[in-house]
Amino acid sequence: MGKKFQAQGRLSKNAKTFMSA
């Protein structure tokens, strides 16, 4: 999870969508 979370963090837009989902 930590690795995936960091990868998403790199993309602000993707990170926001991931968090929203």
Please provide a written account of the structure:
With 21 residues, this protein is mostly helical. It has two helices and no strands. It has helices spanning 2-10, 12-20. α1 packs across α2. The longest helix is centred in the first third of the chain and has 9 residues, at 2-10. The protein is flat. The mean pLDDT is 67. Residues 9-21 have a biased composition (Polar residues). Residues 1-21 are annotated as: Disordered.
- Specify the oligomeric state: single chain
Low-pLDDT sequence parts: none
How does the major sheet shape up?
none
Number of helical stretches of at least 4 residues: 2
> Percent of residues in helical segments?
over 70%
Question: What's the mean pLDDT score?
Answer: 67
Give the H and E element order: HH
Share of β-strand residues:
under 5%
Global outline: flat
Distance between the termini: 15 Å
What is the strand tally? 0
Radius of gyration: 7 Å
SS-derived structural category: mainly alpha
Region (Disordered): 1-21
Biased composition (Polar residues): 9-21
